[in-house]
Amino acid sequence: MNKKLKLTLGLLMIGATTLYAADGLIGTEQDPLVTKSYVDQKISQITGGTSNTVLANQLKEQEQLILTLRDEIAELKQSGSSTYEIVVVPEGKIIFGKQGSEMIIRAGEGKIVASSVGGVQDITEGKDLSGDTVAPKNNLLLIPREDGRGLMATKQLTVMVRGGYILN
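The chain above was modelled as a monomer; its predicted structure follows.
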């Protein structure tokens, strides 16, 4: 074979290989060649157009909300539980109930501490007990508002309390 024929066949093979490779899936809809602006546009569509700083700020806000909610949960745990707690009130001390607190005197003697708005509700007997009234034993007493209502121990009291309270 002469040189021209070999050269021509070689060029034909290189051309055919190039055409075959160019006809592949490179640069088609299935495998597109794209620009940086196209990629940035698609990323913006996926993230809703928000930047990293906006996302970082949103993350900080959510973390702050979590901390606030943790504090509120801890405060709710301190404000009272759904079970009765036994509280001993020394003579001369006052146990102030928080709004909705329930108290039952089990031992000792005490008087009702009322506010200017009203007294303590005796749920057992269905009446309102005003200030300085002797508090009955074994009756369910309800503190309707957190405004200074409670029980003062004239002798050491043992009280079952459900809900929040402050011992003073």
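Residues 94 and 112 are 10 Å apart (CA to CA).
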